[in-house]
Amino acid sequence: MKAQKTRKVKFRGIIIKAILLLFLIYTLVSFIRIRMQINEKKAQLNAVNEKITTQQEKNGELNDLLENGITDDYIARIARENGYGMPSERVYESNRKLS
């Protein structure tokens, strides 16, 4: 009789330890998955913040144009960005990046 009770107690102890181990593993895996999601969302947030900064700079330029009007310097800059130049200028393009 005592042998059966001790077997039951040992078996219950093993079951409880196995359940706790499985719960611990599940918790650890969930924690790692959540941390990965947090890092991914942080990267997305940084990308969006960069886009916001870029757009704010563009908005600032456009606001300056609205307040001051379009200047000859602005027209020349836009023309150069699009590959145009003054009649007496030669436009060279280089694929090499300056360091």
User: What radius of gyration results from the CA coordinates?
Assistant: 34 Å
Most strands sheet: none
**What's the tally of helices?**
2
What would you call the shape? rod-shaped
Structural class: mainly alpha
- What is the count of distinct domains? 1
**What series of H and E elements makes up the topology?**
HH
Strand content: under 5%
SSE topology:
Blueprint: H1 2-68, H2 72-81
What does this structure look like?
There is one protein chain. This protein is mainly α and 99 residues long. The protein has one domain (2-81). The protein contains two helices and no strands. The chain has helices at residues 2-68, 72-81. The protein is rod-shaped. The model has no long low-confidence stretch (mean pLDDT 87).
Q: What does this entry show, briefly?
A:
The chain has 99 residues and is mostly helical.
Task: Kindly list the characteristics that best describe this protein.
99 residues; mainly alpha
